[in-house]
Amino acid sequence: MHIHRLEKLWIIIGTAMLVVFLVAIGIGAYAMGNHPPGHTSSIKLDPEKVYETPPFDNPGLEKIGENEYNAYIVAYIYGYNPGNIEIPVGATVHFYVTSADVVHGFNIPGTIVNMMAIPGEVNEMTYTFDEPAEYLLLCNEYCGIGHEYMATTITVKG
Amino acid sequence: MDARRDQMESKRRENGNNQQEHGQDEPLKGTFASVLMLGAFIAVSWIGVFLLFLNRS
Q1: Distance (Å, rounded) from C-alpha B22 to C-alpha B16?
Q2: Which residue of B has its CA nearest to A2?
Q3: Is a pLDDT exceeding 60 seen at residue B1?
Q4: Class of domain A47-157
Q5: Is the ipTM of this complex over 0.90?
Q6: Alpha-carbon gap, residue A3 to A114, rounded angstroms
Q7: Is the pTM of this model over 0.90?
Q8: CB-CB: which of B32, B39, B50 is closest to A6?
Q9: How far is CA A100 from the centre of its chain?
Q10: Nearest neighbour of B46 by CB, restricted to A6, A13, A21
Q11: Which residues of B touch A110 (CB under 8 A)?
Q12: Residue ranges covered by each domain of chain A
């Protein structure tokens, strides 16, 4: 089969680009642990019994290391339980997020923390807060009439 | 480059299908340029988004 020289060239360039993209994503996923939020969580829960199911019967921060926390957070119309979280600077926080009612968003603008809070599912995301600041945590999935008021802050103290 | 093209041309003439081959050959330069531009756009966008992700993580 005759393939034009330029055609060969752009096939090679295109294939090389794909390989570079896939290798970068592969290294990120397997060596750096960059997974999209929403991989199957080990926590299973009945969406109608969120507040009776551990760990969401006691939502909040749980210290698990030197400066490392688990944050169990329940999104509801129209807020987050708990709200106004405070953590020290440099803290690594593993967020475990679910919803008590409808689908909500869980987004901290300026960071890569951005996932959905889904009834019956627990989404996980890990983030290290290196800058002391007040981070906004807001809902970015339209959830009802009070959606625009659904926000709280995460205070990172220096 | 030109020497090679001339060589290819004469070869085609020998084969007697100059008209047909020539019709396929030349117009691909523009296509190649467009493909490269599209490829550059995709690469730049991908790298931009990836750097943004690394910066924020």
Answers
A1: 11
A2: B21
A3: no
A4: mainly beta
A5: no
A6: 45
A7: no
A8: B32
A9: 17
A10: A21
A11: 56
A12: 1-34, 47-157
